[in-house]
Fold each of these.
Amino acid sequence: MARRVAGKKAFITGAAQGLGAAFARKLASEGAKVSLADINVAGAAAVAAEINAAQGEGTAFAFPLDVTKEEQWIFALEEADAAMGGISVLVNNAGISRGGNIEELSFEDWKLVMGVNVDSVFLGTKHALKYLRQNQPGSIVNISSIAGLIAAHNTPVYNASKAAVWLLSKGIALHCAKQGLDVRSNSIHPTFIDTPILDPLRQRFGKEEAEAKLARQVPLGRIGEPDDIANAVLYLASDESRFMTAAELKLDGGISAM
C-alpha cells in the first residue's frame, strides 16, 4: 500500500522537540520529505538525523529559524525548497506560553507570546505560499489550542494568541480559495499533551500529581499523546483531506463539550 503522504514535502516549525518532532517523524514514516525548523537548530538536526537513520538519507533536513524574524523565514523556506525539491505542506507549530492574569502579565511577555504564536503564522504563510502555489495540492496546518476556543482567568495572552491562530487559519483558507489555489488551511486544537510544555507543572507538583490534575479536567480521563495530534496532522497533510479547509479539529478529550 502506498504511504499516505508519499511525495509530499513538509516544512515544520518548532520541530526540535515535542509535537513538532512527532509531526516530522509521523510524516516521514508515511512517505514525506520533511524540513525541521527551530531556533534550537542542534535539536532539530538531531531529530532529522534520527529520521534519516530510520527512513533513509535525504528524508529530513534541519534549518535554524526564529519564527518572529521575517528575514529568517525567507531564508529557511528558500533553503528547504532547494533541499526537498519543493514545499507542499506548511505546519505552523512553534508556540510558547506565559502565565499571569490580565493585571499581572507584563507587556513584554504579551508581545513575546503574540510574536511567537501569531506573527509566526502570518510570516510563515505569507512567504510559504510562493512555494505552495508551485506544489499543489498544498496544505497549511496551524497548531492552535483548545485554549483558543475556551478562555481561562489566568492565561489571557495564550487564549488570545491561539484564538488569533484559529481565525487567521480561516482567513487564509478563504484567501487561497478566492485565488483559485488548491491549498487548504486548517487549525488543530489540542488540550494537554505529554510534551515539554507541561514540564513547569511537573516540576511544581511532581510528574504523577501534575498529570493526574490535568487528566481530571479531561472527560476521557487522560492527557493526550503526541501521536494523537500527529495523526491529525498526517490527515490534513494528505490528499485525504482535499475537501477540508477553514475548519478546526478539536483534539481535547471532550473538554469543549462541557
Amino acid sequence: MRLFLLTALTMTAFAANSVLNRMGVGPGHIGAVEFAVVRLLAGAGMLALLLLARARGGRGRLSTGAPGRRLVGAGSLLLYLFGFSMAYGALDAGVGALILFGTVQITMFAGALALREEVPARRWVGAGLAFAGLLWLFAPGEGAALSPSHAAMMAAAGLGWGIYSLSARGAADPLGATAWNFLFAGVPGVLLAVALVARGIEADAAGLSLAILSGAVTSGLGYALWYAILPALGAARAAVAQLSAPVIAAFGGLVLIGEPVTPRLVVAALMVLGGVAFASLPKRR
C-alpha cells in the first residue's frame, strides 16, 4: 500500500508538469524554451539546497557518483525537458500525452527485456489495457492536424524520460543521483539562459512562476521520489504506472483550465487505472 501511495503521488507530480506547462506556454505567458530553462534551473537549485542541507547534517556526501551514469541522466533529462516544452507549442495536449507516455512505455519495456527482467503476463495484459485506454481517450478526431516535427519532439521527450528512468535502476542514493543529474544538465541550461537574456526573455510573471513551480516542486522533488521508488517497481511495472499520468493530467485540466469531462474520458480513465492496478498485482506465492 505504501508503494502504491508513493507511486500515485509521483504520477500526480508528473501530471502537474503537463498542466503547468499548458497553463504557461499555451496562453503565451512564457516561451517553450524559456519554460524548459527556468524549470531546469529551478529544479537544480531546489535539489542542490536539499543536497547541501543533508551534507551539513552529516547524513550524506556530495559525491557525484559514476560520471558515466550522471552524463546519461543529464543528457536524457535535457532531451525530455526541451522536447516536452517545444512539442506543446503545436501539439494538442491529448495527442502529445499519448505520444510521450506511449514512447516511455515502449522504451522501458524494451529496457526491461534487454536487462532480462522478468515481465509476467499480467503486466503485458495490464499495459495493453492501459494503452488501449489512452488510444480511446487521446485519438485525434476527424480533421485533426498533427505536426510531424512536433510529434517527433514529443517522441524524443518520451525516449529521454524512458532512458532517464532506466538509468535510475540500482541508485544507492536517489536524492543525490537526481540532484547531480539536474546540476550536470544545469551547465548547458545556464549557458542557454544567458543567451535568452541577451536576446530578450519572452515571459511574464505568471509564466515564470509556473515554470519555477514546475521545476522546484513537481520536477525536482517529484523526480527524487521517483528515483527512490523505482528499484521497488522495476522497469516494466514503472512503465505501466506512468500511463496513469495523462489521465490525471486530464482531470487536472478540468479543475485548473476548465476542460470538460466527457464519457470518453471516464471510460478511458477506468481502463488506464484498471490496467495499472492489474499490472501492479504482486506475484502469487
Amino acid sequence: MTPNAAPAQSPFNPEQHRIERVLCFSAHPDDVDFGAAGTIAAWTAAGVEVSYCIMTDGDAGGFDPAQRAEIIALRAAEQERAAALVGVTDIHYLHQRDGYLEPNHEVMRGVVKLIREVRPDVVLSMHPERNWKRIQKSHPDHLAVGEAVTRAVYPAVENPFAYPDLAEAGLEAFKLPWLWLYAGPEERENHFVDVTEHVESKLEAIHVHVSQHPDAEAMEATVRRGMQANAGRAGLPDGRSAEAFHVVMVNGPGTIAGF
C-alpha cells in the first residue's frame, strides 16, 4: 500500500452484521490487549460475550531473573486483571511453551474444540503473515497462532470428519461467519474500529502487564501514536483513535463449501 492509498474495503458492515459472541486467540498474556483491547471494550460495553484463549503460558517473558519461578502464575494473574478491565472474565489456556508454539495438530485440535464449544460469530486471532515494517509484531509464536487458527477455521471447524473424537463427544461441526486478524501487515488491514472512547481502558489493561514493560511511559506513547495513525489511515477526524484488522468472511450468504 502506498502512503496515500485508501485501505482495502472490509466485507464487514457493523450496521448489517450482528455480533453476539467473540472468541479471541493470542500467543501470550498481553498480546490481545495490545492488539484489540479497545475493540473488545467496545464490544463488551454493547453486550457482546467475549472469551480469550491464550495459547502459551508466557513463561519466557519478563525481565527480572528473580521472577522466573513465578512468571507463569504472575502473567496469568496479570491477564485476568487486564481482561476484567475490558469486560472479559472467560479465559482459556492451551498451556503451550512460550517460544515453542507450532501450528501442529495438538494445537489445532485445541482450537477447533474451543471454537465448537463457544460457537462465536467472530474469531479474533493474531495474523499468520509476518510484518516486515515492525518485525516485533511477528514473534514466531504470533505467526504460529495465526497459522493454527486459520487452518482450524477452515476446514476443520466445519468438517465433522476432522478430529472425529470431538464430534463423538458432542461438539458438532460449526460454520464460522467471520475471522478477524490483528498484528499483521498494514497492507492487509481492511477494517478499522474507532476506539476513541475506550483508549484509556485499553491502556489501563496494558499497564497491568507490569512484568513486561521496562519502560511503561515509552510503551504508552507508542501505543497512542499507533492508534492515532490507524485513525488517520481510516479517514477518521483528527483526535480519534482506532484499531486495525484484516477481516475475512469465512461463511456468508454466497459461500459454497470447498470453493
